[in-house]
Design goal:
The chain is an alpha+beta fold. It is about 30% helix and about 20% strand. The protein binds flavin-adenine dinucleotide (FAD).
Length: about 475
């Protein structure tokens, strides 16, 4: 057996692969499937014990998918529809999914069918490079420290963990260093949604909203009923005046902190494929950076406190929730943004709003800017035209400081507002698909540098997502 030596420790090299994928979330799944399908030997290392990252463990179980994206996100939704005897794909551009069904569907697609090797409970802890080339990653698991050699590395950790440990340049947050504020998602079960809709229809105070939102999220109770009946996305928000009214009528029921927190964005919840529970996207952690363990710990604690108070309000005052209970909270905090690894090109908000097209396009997207304010209160939303899109260039998924490092998903090279647009699930999967396909193509061509890619050949392989 070969070994690497690090800080006087002899670490066994347990695998030698073509493409190493760090993180098995949305982008990691895309990268793993794409690289393995075209013949590369692939290893995906994931610190949790399931695939899907934010869309499964983070409970962000609603895939945003534009008309231009016919990649692995679409394929996943079709597979879920076949399994569930449903037609959720028709709900595009927003498709609710069942996170538990998705976990085992991803095991099937990535491991059984594409043939990528996946190691769960495995954290990337260090990186050994030789100049501009990464040679080996060190992983930690129940086995202890082990090392993996690879030709190409794809950072799909969301937090840019592989790039960071390799010493790649990166950026965090906006001009003040703060990221879009995160959300701890949770699900509430045993909800009588029909009762809720009837009461919302009859009582105008339940329909009042004050917060900025998307045009297609302003849905009447009747339309929500129609949507639920036809496997379509239903959205309920924001109840802010109702929260204020009930708090006034019930002094002492909520602390000032709880009330302030509930009024940050009000109540936002949505339907899920199984009709008796809802997914709540209401909590927010203000002044968050995303690269500090103490900060992360207190964010989870605050997130759970917010969940408890929000649920207490809903059970007490929102019709249809009388017999409900908290089904679960995300095992991963809903981090919208943390480290972004700097690439050969930094994708910008100007590219987003001008529907920029690039010669080295690898992915197209239609998501508009959606910044969740640092203080947790407002959401800056800039909707785009439905009939146009922007491209993301190959240069923004290759790390500028290395010759064999890609980054896909929310740690790709973008500025703060551009990332807020280009981070939906299907798009992160598509970025992974692009990086995995590129890495595999380079290995086959015997090339050792991401910049030696035959871009036309790559683009032919990526027609479903460009
Ligand atoms: C609150 C919230 C609401 C959102 N709403 C929507 C929406 O409605 N629709 C939509 O499409 N998108 C939505 N998004 C965006 C979307 O969910 C994320 O941007 C996307 O999932 C990011 O994918 P990713 O692969 O980059 O990261 P992730 O899905 O987070 O995957 C990263 C993976 O890497 C693993 N990992 C991290 N570090 C290590 C390490 N050192 N070693 C091994 N593994 C590691 C993690 O465990 C995880 O599995 C939302 C996001 C949030 C947070």
């Amino acid at each position: 057996m070969d070994y690497v030596t690090m800080q006087n420790k002899k670490i066994p090299i347990v695998a030698d692969v073509d493409v190493f994928v760090a993180g098995g979330g949305c982008a990691g799944v895309g990268a793993g499937i794409a690289a393995a399908r075209i013949g590369a030997k692939v290893l995906v290392a994931e610190r949790m014990f399931y695939l899907g990252g934010m869309m499964t463990g983070g409970l962000m179980s609603k895939i945003a998918i534009g008309e231009v994206n016919h990649g692995l996100g679409e394929e996943l939704i079709k597979r879920l529809d076949v399994y569930q005897h449903s037609n959720w794909l028709a709900s595009r551009s927003e498709v609710p999914i069942d996170p538990e069904v998705t976990k085992f569907m991803l095991d099937k697609m990535v491991i059984e069918e594409a043939g990528a090797e996946v190691l769960f409970g495995t954290t990337i802890t260090d990186v050994i490079s030789d100049g501009r080339s990464i040679r080996t990653v060190v992983i930690d698991s129940v086995n202890g420290l082990e090392a993996v050699r690879a030709k190409y590395f794809i950072d799909c950790t969301g937090d840019g963990q592989l790039g960071f440990k390799a010493g790649a340049s990166y950026v965090v947050g906006n001009d003040q260093g703060y990221s879009s504020s995160p959300t701890l998602m949770f699900r509430i079960a045993n909800v009588d949604i029909e009762k809720l809709i009837s009461e919302m229809d009859a009582r105008p105070e339940l329909r009042e909203s004050v917060k900025n939102t998307y045009t297609n999220h302003k849905i009447s109770p009747k339309q929500n009923r129609e949507n639920i009946a036809h496997d379509k996305y239903a959205h309920f928000a924001d109840f802010v005046p109702y929260i204020q009214q009930k708090a006034k009528e019930n002094p002492g029921m909520f602390t000032q902190w709880e009330l302030d927190m509930m009024l940050q964005r009000g109540l936002i919840f949505m339907n899920q494929p199984q009709g008796t529970h809802v997914l709540v996207n209401s909590t927010r952690i203000p002044y968050f950076k995303g690269n500090d363990n103490k900060e992360l710990t207190s964010a989870y604690i605050s997130g759970r406190k917010q969940v408890e108070a929000t649920f207490r309000f809903m059970k007490a005052f929102v019709p249809g929730f009388e017999k409900s209970f908290i089904m679960d909270t995300g095992s991963l905090l809903g981090i919208r943004e943390s480290r972004r690894i700097t690439g050969d090109y930094i994708f910008t908000d100007k590219d987003v709003v001008s529907y920029q097209k690039f010669d080295d396009a690898v992915v197209s997207n239609q998501g508009g800017i959606e910044i969740h304010a640092t203080d947790g209160h407002e959401t800056d939303i800039q909707e785009l035209k439905k009939n146009d899109h922007y491209n993301v260039p190959y240069r923004s998924i290759i790390a500028k400081d290395f010759d064999n490092l890609y980054m896909a998903g929310r740690c790709f090279s973008a500025n703060h507002p551009a990332l807020s647009a280009a981070r939906n699930i299907s798009y992160c999967m598509a970025l992974g698909q692009a990086a995995g396909t590129a890495g595999s193509q380079l290995v086959k061509a015997g090339k050792q540098n991401v910049r030696d890619i035959d871009i036309k050949e790559l683009q032919q392989k990526l027609v479903s997502i460009i």
